[in-house]
Design goal:
Radius of gyration: 37 Å
Low-confidence stretches: 1-14, 26-38
Distance between the termini: 98 Å
Oligomer: single chain
Order of helices and strands: HHHHHHHHHHHHHHHHHHHHHH
Mean pLDDT: 79
Length: 401
């Protein structure tokens, strides 16, 4: 009986604590709701961020809409619109995302980072959205963007993307127009190199040598770093397609532009050989080399390339080229094949080191097994370095190339 009374007493003593915990559990949500009323902008933004964290992008978009309506200033409304634009991008509602970013950019009293974020959202839609109408609308909207927020690189990437979308939709004419605008307006941007290559491929595939020449002349006028590569690609494509005459003309243009370029000499040779005037080309080249100091280095590079060719028909022209180089300038032989004092010193030091190591290790080598296996006492890192040094050389790198 005493035990029953003690148990009931302990139970009755715990009841107030249980009631307090239950009351606290009920009151906490009420207090939280009182602190974050539905009409509070900060609460709406917090709800949107919480929905994003749990992956409920639909609820996040609704919460950002509520925040837009509750915002009292332009910067607050811009923050909500930027968040909404990002969410709509993630759920692939590209048109609504563009609308949100454009409204964010139009808000008054924006901070510089907010305005830039809004325009960068438009750039992302214009440069990455797979929907052609949305990408075009975003590209049109960028016309009003300040240069501080949208760079030339951004505008170039947009034009490149529009060209891709037009081509995917089967509108080759619009694709070519977009890429030509890119090359004409922003030739120094990396996207212009891609656009030029795509244009060149189209012109070569459709056998339009006049368009190829117009493209190359437009690129050469502004002189970007990839102009030479574009010339070489065009010459190779024209030669393979059977238009060796046009390829030879382009080669002559490139040589007139860059007479010291070994690549130009090398690229022009196959076109002239296929055209059947290789001897005349070599004679003109030698004449040019005689008038242009340093140009013989390009001819020597061409001769070297033909000399190491696996095709036996390239060896006689290589020998003839060497002979003509020597006949045109006997001093060329000394410049091309002679060694100077630093070269001889480096070679001598190298051989001295190799021989010294050999004589030093000779006393430890008594048999062929010692020579090839070093008594099976080489550690793993030494064997690894030996393997790498034996297998990585000039021949290996040429094979990779």
């Amino acid at each position: 009986m005493a035990r029953i009374r003690a148990s009931s007493g302990s139970l009755s003593s715990t009841r107030p604590l249980s009631r307090a915990l239950i009351a606290l559990a009920v009151l906490l949500p009420i207090l939280a709701a009182a602190q974050a009323q539905p009409g509070d902008y900060a609460a709406a933004v917090q709800d949107a961020r919480q929905a994003v964290r749990v992956g409920r992008f639909d609820l996040a978009a609704v919460a950002y809409d509520r925040a837009v309506g509750l915002a009292k200033t332009g910067p607050e409304r811009a923050d909500a619109l930027l968040g909404k634009g990002q969410i709509l991008w993630l759920v692939r509602r590209y048109a609504d995302s563009l609308d949100a970013y454009r409204k964010a950019a139009d808000q008054p009293d924006l901070a510089a980072f907010q305005r830039r974020a809004a325009w960068q959202g438009v750039v992302r839609l214009a440069g990455d959205a797979p929907d052609l109408p949305v990408a075009k609308a975003a590209a049109d909207a960028l016309a009003a963007a300040p240069a501080t927020d949208v760079t030339d690189a951004d505008r170039a990437s947009v034009l490149a993307h529009l060209g891709d979308l037009h081509l995917a939709a089967g509108d080759k004419t619009s694709a070519i127009d977009s890429w030509r605008r890119l090359v004409d307006l922003y030739p120094q941007q990396s996207a212009a190199r891609f656009a030029s290559q795509r244009l060149l491929e189209i012109y070569l595939a459709e056998h339009h040598p006049a368009d190829v020449r117009a493209l190359l002349e437009a690129v050469r006028r502004v002189g970007p770093s990839y102009a030479d590569d574009l010339y070489l690609s065009a010459m190779d494509g024209l030669t393979q397609s059977g238009d060796a005459a046009e390829a030879a003309k382009l080669g002559d243009d490139l040589l007139a532009w860059h007479p010291l370029s070994p690549l130009a000499w090398h690229a022009a040779w196959p076109a002239h050989r296929k055209l059947g005037d290789a001897d005349a080309f070599l004679k003109r080249a030698l004449d040019a080399a005689a008038k242009q100091p340093g140009a013989e280095q390009g001819l020597a590079a061409l001769a070297d390339t033909l000399a190491v060719s696996m095709a036996p028909e390239d060896w006689p022209p290589s020998l003839a080229l060497y002979e003509r180089l020597l006949a045109a300038d006997p001093q060329t032989a000394g410049r091309l094949i002679s060694l100077h004092s630093p070269d001889i010193a480096i070679i001598a030091i190298y051989f001295a080191m190799v021989l010294g190591i050999g004589f030093y290790l000779r006393r430890y080598t008594k048999s062929g097994k010692d020579f090839f296996l070093a008594g099976r006492e080489i550690t793993a890192w030494v064997a690894g370095l030996s393997f790498v040094s034996a297998n990585l050389g000039a021949l290996e790198l040429m094979g990779w190339a």
